[in-house]
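Researcher: Next entry in the queue.
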Amino acid sequence: MMFNVNHLRCEYRINPIGLDVESPRLSWQLQSDRRNCIQSAYRIQLSLTEEFDETVWDSGVQNTDQSIHVELNHFQPLPRTRYYYRIRALDDAGNDTGWSEIAYFEMGRMDRHNKWEAEWITACHKEDENTSCPRMRKTFEVRQPVASARIYVTALGLYELHLNNTRVGEDFFTPGWTSYRKRLQYQTYDVTPLLQDGQNILGSYLADGWYRGYLGWNKEREVFGSTSALLLELHMKYADGSEECIISNGDWSATSSAIRMSDIYMGEIYDARMESDWSDSSQASWSPVKVLEYSKDMIVAQENVPVTKVEQLQPIALLTTPQGECVIDMGQNMVGWVRFSIQGEAGQMVELHHAEILDHEGNFYTDNLRDAKQCIRYTLKGGGVETFEPHFTFQGFRYVKLIGFPEQLLLEQFTGIVLHSNMERTGHFSCSSPLVNQLHHNILWGQKGNFLDVPTDCPQRDERLGWTGDAQMFVRTSSYLMNTAPFFTKWLRDLKADQGEDGASLFSFLI
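Model: Structure for this entry, 511 residues:
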């Protein structure tokens, strides 16, 4: 007969790294070809190795049908340590699954045991570059084989990491939107494969994000803070057992970047003529960073699943509106951005404007956006085909108006990149009615468009805020369609952090 344990999860996730909980909880599912099969017992083992020759914890046989949120009683995990686990189960007829496939979880810094050695660092903006996205970097040497390497990083604002000219991770809009004064998430990245013998260059962009960019419909900026900053530790464990830590401090240097502006509502301005390799030492503009005195007491490990590129859409039509404007139709109201390719002369500028609908005459309509520009402006560097996609902004749209592009365009030059919190799909629905199926399709895309780190009310105009009423109305449907547990766990903790004595959130319109 067929009887096994599968779908192993730790804290709702597959092989998570960077956990910071007192006792990680495990869950699993049983698969059997026998009807009415019920678990009667389980056994869990933890090991420091995949071969399970260093077992550190064994539950023994536990006579219970529990298979969800099973706590590892009396197990005390160590910081920055990976644990492999396997599970076997018995059913009510005495059948044994044998050991499951091996999964793992890895603990984060566990800040209550280890204080941050790193310092907050920020770039010194010139007065005319207050909205640009600076770059910061650190050069270091690796002189012996590296067994493992982890980066623990957060920011006041948003960051994008690069190591040896390779983007670190697949997460976007990190560290996410939280109650910044009381809770600030850090992320953990396994960068072992990105390190190289000899010289290495670690770098990061910084952007305003929700922290200090435009927020709300009153053209407010710097709602949570006035200075963006980076906090980072790179822990390297060498093959001989020794360790080294590279930290953010005054030894880093900073310069301006090709990202001249990037704002969640307004879009992004990018000048490709200013691009340069992270290892480029010819720029005289690299200057020392500034160490920022700022608390680290509110930092917590990431709780939500990250925002990622979830899928891609190809446009279905290239339109010329009655007003003579060139517009591409994505065929679906989506949230994310457009990746495009273009060839032209250095200094040539193109723009992409985003909208959800056309008006009753078929013209491009943006009045509902209010003050949110949703505009991408790109200046070419010349010399060949250039491909671009934004960094720290997202748009809600179906239609994209193109300005400055050549007359001869191909739809293949444009791709819609759908972004949202990467929640596991858990529920599906279909029926014999095309109309009802379309309604369900719209509901699903409503969730894709409004679950970007927090549950928002809309993804396009100068709002995009986490109103509690919208989330309350939709929480049951969203939780049927996707695994929303990490998503709502993080958001509700932020909501609680900002509640006053009367129960109202001090920033309820923001988070």
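Model: The chain has four helices and 35 strands.
Researcher: Noted, moving on.
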